[in-house]
Amino acid sequence: MLKGKKIIVGITGSIAAYKAAYLCRLLIKKGAEVQVVITPTGKEFITPVTLSALTQKPVLGEFFTANDGIWHSHVDLGLWADLMMIAPATASTIGKMANGIADNLLITTYLSMKAPIFIAPAMDLDMYAHPSTRANLEKLESYGNRIIEPTEGMLASRLEGKGRMEEPDKIVECIEAFFKRQNQLSQKKVLITAGPTYEKLDPIRYIGNYSSGKMGFALAESCAGRGAEVFLIAGPVQLKIHHPNIRRIDVNSADEMMDETLRIFPHADAGILCAAVADYKPANYSAEKLKRTDESLKINLIPNPDIAAKLGEIKRADQILAGFALETENEMQNALGKLQKKRLDFIVVNSLRDPGAGFQTDTNKIRILTAKGENTDFPLKPKCEVAEDIVDVLYGFWK
Ligand code: PMT
């Protein structure tokens, strides 16, 4: 998978820099060509001699070679690489990357990079949790950079917490998975629904649900990351999209979501319906605020359209349709019923009985049932990884 891939390993001034030597070794063993770019403080933690011996290339750390004035072109490095991996990335380097402070070769290389960029942070737990680090990482993600979350454990400070750079073998797994999935969906158009719907009662109030949109947005990023053109029909959520291949269409109500979905689905190769669509809406909208009285208030609710069932009805043989089932009991039975009734190719089951699964969490625990009778259980994972598992199943239909 990594044979012939050109990888820049960026090393910064962290005690975890010693792990970068092993990372370079693993990448080279897998056939990659590795060029190390190191910050001045990085050199205090690991010697360039070790790294150049491993990579069989001079380690680049300065804009010029002092004795002969040879310029190390960050622009050429940006064009040369298939991938840049900054491991370990300190809070300082992350801050400079987020703000374009180009005072060393690693940052200028980062700013010139044409290839995908991965960042494996390493720092003390309080530094990692600090709002400025969080904001910088969020900003870098919004530029399309991929963060390899640090793990929890004993840190160099002897404190326990989140901040340990991910282990080199896991980082290599991430890189391999990235190259494996890159361009898998390059010819495909995928429609995704995400978030809740709001059903208006009066100018002040609505009927809604707790969906944050995180699961659906993660699916959109995953499909776009594999080269698909994504149409993301999003209910009212606070999230931002990152990938340029995602076209976002904002809606409020189930009716609006239905209209947009019906408009786009005929042009799509697949639909993944992750939105938590309100099943009912108020029969009447009050143009004025409903006044409080001492009497109980009866609101007449009528069914919303079932978007998934409608798409199942009009789906062509060359299209794949996937839905979700959010359950609180009889998970399998209910999900199978929805799979069949809505004529889905597969359904992703998540249950509110599983801690860390469902609404608003950053994690989810799913089971995927296919119309062919396959049934796969996945452990609790971050929603971005859950999305990759779901898109792997989708891709399996086209292999
Ligand atoms: O957004 P998050 O906070 O990250 O939470 C993610 C999630 C819990 C919302 C997501 O993982 C999820 O389960 N989404 C589906 C929620 C839901 O409405 O499930 P359901 O079992 O009620 O619906 C079954 C399927 O029919 C779903 O694909 C749904 O999009 C679709 N549906 C439902 C009702 C309706 N009127 N139209 C529909 O298309």
Describe this structure as you would to a colleague.
By secondary structure, this protein is an alpha/beta fold. The protein has 14 helices and 21 strands. The strands form 6 sheets. The chain has an 8-stranded mixed β-sheet with strand order 12-11-8-13-16-17-19-20, with helices on both faces. α1 packs parallel to α3 and α10 (214-225) packs across α14 (383-396). The structure holds ligand PMT. Ligand PMT is lined by residues 193, 195, 211-216, 254, 273-277, 279, 304, 306-308, 323-326, 338, 350, 358-360.
Low-pLDDT stretches are none
| Overall mean confidence score, pLDDT | 96
For the record, give the distance between the C-alpha atoms at the N and C termini, rounded to a whole number.
18 Å
Please state the CA-atom Rg, rounded to the nearest Å.
Answer: 24 Å
What order do the strands of the largest sheet run in, or round the barrel if closed? 12-11-8-13-16-17-19-20
| Approximate helicity band | 25-40%
Strand content: 15-25%
Q: How many helical stretches? A: 14
Bound molecules: ligand PMT
Report the count of strand segments: 21
Structural class: alpha/beta
Shape: elongated
The major β-sheet equals:
8 strands, mixed
